[in-house]
């Protein structure tokens, strides 16, 4: 019976294409995070749960506190204390002690021009002391869903105890830009700051190139943004962009100028190109993941329809690990085959390096072969000569031959297999579909 299986007609099976459609963006930043806010879906993370210094992106949290607590018409006076307490090399718009301005104008100085002295005086007006305001900031951060953070000042000037993860900064930024006043000001390119007591007007221009139509990094979809910088933090950036009915919050941490703007645009381009927003019958929003290649669409749709993968933000063109592949295979096959798959997964030792690294084509073939060998094969297929597997072990060569002859895997061209090439998530789904086809056709062979 199984000999018929060995001579399965390969020509009847569609070969898994390897054309890449939507790879994850390659960023210069050491940390980054991207979410779609309508569905609260994480679309990208790079060291998203490690801590970094936020520098002046801190000010979105400061602005949220001030906009929530103080009247926009309240008068603030630049204090001597701000001059004494804020380091002299801090960013500022150049107002003198005694200058009076409204909270509304002060927020423009904070979010557009990143004035540290204005931050200090706004914090004093809000909470009476910097320490009390920092406590207020940390409470607001927790309310926004942040974790692994600590804020000790309102402006972000370097302090080793002032830190946040990209994931938490994304949550904070979302909360801040959900505030209409903060969002409006953070999306304003130019503004005239007015000193009430002197009548002096100070033109302000936003420090983010994302808002500047004359910049090569201009993005018409960005509705709010804040820059940050000091030496230990590097260049940091937060931004919100709207593409149709989708809203994205992006965070970029620790890179060099002007790469923070380039990285942010890469994130937004990736998100807007590869995801779309839909609404189910209960009017609940959901994201459709379009990161797969055109050839993979029927396999992805089949897997989603049958429920052995779920609609997620996982990029289908990224590499799949051995554990991920076997776990998908476990979920995609009938219960009859679950036990043989269980034997291949080291559930008690999930830290095994080979299981959590991207699987190669040779390793994949070996895993598939081991899976089928548990069904006591009586014969082994022999593939035509393959030019690039001669240095591999006899077992691996047999595994590759088996997978090719059964139609589960294919050669890359006439006589090469590329055994060290990594397998993508979409290829893994395609291959599991083929395994199921083989099992369905020959499910009556003896176990």
Write up what this structure looks like.
There is one protein chain. With 447 residues, the chain is α+β, with helices and mostly antiparallel strands. The chain folds into two domains: 2-22 and 294-441, no CATH class; 31-276, Beta-lactamase, CATH 3.40.710.10. It has helices spanning 2-6, 59-69, 80-85, 103-111, 116-127, 130-143, 166-178, 180-186, 259-274, 297-306, 322-332, 338-342, 353-356, 361-373, 394-405, 425-441, and strands at 31-36, 41-46, 75-77, 100-102, 149-150, 163-164, 190-194, 201-205, 222-230, 234-243, 246-255, 275-279, 285-289. The strands form five sheets. Strands 2-1-11-10-9 form a five-stranded antiparallel beta sheet, with helices on both faces. Strands 3-4 form a two-stranded antiparallel ribbon. Strand 12 and strand 13 (285-289) form a beta hairpin. The protein starts with a helix and ends in a 6-residue tail after the last helix. Residues 1-15 have low confidence and may be disordered.
Fraction in beta strands: 15-25%
Helix and strand content put the structural class at alpha+beta
In CATH, the homologous superfamily of the largest domain goes by the name DD-peptidase/beta-lactamase superfamily
CATH topology of the largest domain: Beta-lactamase
Number of domains: 2
Largest sheet: 5 strands, antiparallel
Tell me the helix content: 25-40%
CATH class categorisation of the largest domain: Alpha Beta
Q: What's the Cα radius of gyration? A: 28 Å
- Total number of helical segments? 16
- The coarse silhouette is elongated
Q: Poorly predicted ranges (pLDDT <50, ≥5 residues)? A: 1-15
């Amino acid at each position: 019976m199984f000999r018929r299986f060995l001579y399965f007609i390969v020509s009847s099976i569609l070969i898994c294409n390897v054309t890449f459609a939507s790879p994850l963006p390659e960023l210069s930043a050491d940390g980054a995070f991207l979410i779609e806010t309508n569905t609260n879906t994480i679309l990208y993370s790079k060291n998203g749960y490690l801590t970094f210094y936020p520098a002046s992106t801190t000010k979105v949290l400061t602005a949220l506190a001030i906009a929530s607590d103080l009247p926009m018409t309240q008068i603030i006076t630049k204090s001597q204390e701000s001059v004494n307490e804020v380091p002299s090399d801090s960013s500022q718009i150049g107002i003198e002690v005694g200058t009076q301005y409204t909270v509304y104008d002060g927020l423009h100085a904070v979010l557009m021009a990143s004035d540290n002295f204005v931050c200090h005086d706004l914090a004093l007006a809000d909470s009476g002391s910097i320490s009390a305001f920092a406590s207020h900031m940390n409470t607001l951060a927790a309310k926004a869903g942040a974790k692994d953070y600590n804020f000790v000042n309102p402006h972000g000037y370097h302090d080793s105890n002032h830190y946040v993860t990209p994931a938490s900064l994304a949550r904070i930024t979302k909360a801040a830009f959900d505030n209409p006043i903060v969002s409006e000001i953070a999306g304003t390119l130019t503004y005239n700051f007015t000193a009430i007591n002197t009548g002096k007007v100070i033109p302000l221009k936003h420090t983010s190139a994302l808002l500047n139509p004359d910049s090569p990094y201009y993005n018409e979809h960005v509705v709010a943004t804040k820059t940050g910088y000091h030496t230990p933090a590097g260049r940091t950036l937060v931004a919100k962009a709207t593409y149709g009915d989708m809203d994205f919050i992006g965070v970029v941490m620790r890179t060099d100028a002007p790469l923070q703007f380039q990285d942010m645009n890469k994130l937004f381009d990736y998100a807007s190109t590869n995801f779309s927003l839909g609404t189910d019958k209960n009017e609940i929003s959901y994201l459709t993941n379009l990161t797969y290649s055109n050839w993979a669409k029927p396999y992805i749709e089949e897997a989603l329809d049958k429920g052995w993968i779920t609609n997620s933000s996982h990029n289908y063109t990224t590499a799949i690990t051995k554990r991920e592949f076997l776990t998908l295979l476990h979920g995609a096959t009938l219960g009859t085959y679950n036990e043989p798959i269980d034997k291949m997964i080291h559930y008690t030792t999930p830290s095994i390096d080979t299981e959590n690294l991207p699987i190669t084509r040779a390793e994949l073939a070996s895993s598939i072969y081991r899976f089928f060998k548990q069904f006591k094969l009586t014969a082994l297929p022999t593939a035509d000569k393959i030019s690039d597997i001669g240095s591999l072990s006899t077992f691996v060569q047999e595994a590759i031959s088996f997978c090719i002859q059964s139609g589960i895997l294919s050669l890359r061209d006439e006589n090469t297999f590329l055994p060290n090439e990594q397998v993508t998530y979409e290829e893994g789904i395609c291959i599991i579909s083929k395994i199921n086809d083989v099992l369905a056709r020959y499910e009556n062979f003896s176990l």
